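Re: weekly structure request thread

Next one in the queue (63 aa):
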Amino acid sequence: MFDRTSTPNAPWHAVEANSKWHARLKVLEIVTAALKEGVNIAPPPVNGNVAKIAAEVLGIEAE
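Done, posted below.
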């Protein structure tokens, strides 16, 4: 089944499920790795005006 249905765009992953905690952790690792491929996960640059207003509202000094 795996050989005939697993594709590069939708690969199958066998996850041992003897422990729910370990199985869920493994699934999260697989999903995270897949989402990182080709996706820029860096935050966008902060607008200076937004940073200034946020600093005023929060009562802190803007960097």
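The two ends are 56 Å apart (CA to CA). The chain has one domain: 2-58.
Next request, please.
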